[in-house]
Amino acid sequence: MALLAVDIGGTSVKHGIWNDEKLGNKGSFRTPATWDEMKTEFMVLKNSLGEGTKISGVAISSPGAVNQNKGVVEGSSAVPYLHHFPIFAELTELFQCPVSIENDANCAALAEIWKGEAKGLKNVLFVVVGTGIGGAVIIDGKVWHGKHLFGGEFGYMLLKDNAIFSELGTAVNMAKRVAKRKNISENELSGEEVFEMAKNGDLIAEEEVETFYHYLAQGIYNLQYSFDPEKIIIGGGISSKEDLIPELNKRLDRIIKQVEIAPFIPEIAICKYKNDANLIGAVYNWYQNWCQAPIKDK
């Protein structure tokens, strides 16, 4: 069974063919400006597969709050024309085969429990640390969307007075705080540069790096003792930092010593899949929606 996997992003649309338990024929095109242009690109993609590749379904990763029951992408995103119309029905008619759509962060999480760092686990949290903080909640091997489709929107969590997790627990905002304290433009500093500055003894950078690690660890601690997952997987740009897990474990250990009633440190890990995570997770979501038999991993 061959599936066309598609990952819609704000600047590009990635795609590939899932066949024989692997992702191949990968490519991408620039995200079109309108929905009509997107559908044209989809037809070009479909026709380019040729007669030798017959697809049984289309698995899509999309931004926004995907309402599976209504067949609509709700909320808002960097691709505004995807929202608030019967997109499932239009794509099913366009491709003439079963279509599934899931939120991109949820897809990344599904990739991890299917074939990645959380393989074999049932209850997992996926925390995406980028410009802000988002993620996914996996319960019993499936995405838990929540009443308002806000399951996994961890960035809204209040951690200090009126400051939310997204403000305190990302390297992007850490760099902005350093820039503000040094009276320079926010665009002049990156998170990587701040980490390097701290390593070289810059006191302001050291303070803000400590703030970043402390609040990221605190957010993870809160999530662990709210959901009690088997594992918390970290994705996003920060996941490429080699010493991230040891640094977080160091802060988590401090928190556990302060909260004496808490009996264990959360188990955290870096995601296995990077660029292909959304495509692989979209495939797994398609299987969950369209296959009656249990999904087996070879």
UniProtKB/TrEMBL annotation:
Belongs to the ROK (NagC/XylR) family. Signal peptide: none annotated. This is N-acetylmannosamine kinase. Pfam families: ROK. The keyword Lipid biosynthesis does not apply. GO terms for molecular function: kinase activity. The keyword Kinase applies. InterPro entries: ATPase_NBD, ROK. Keywords: Kinase, Transferase. It comes from Heyndrickxia shackletonii. It comes from the Bacteria.
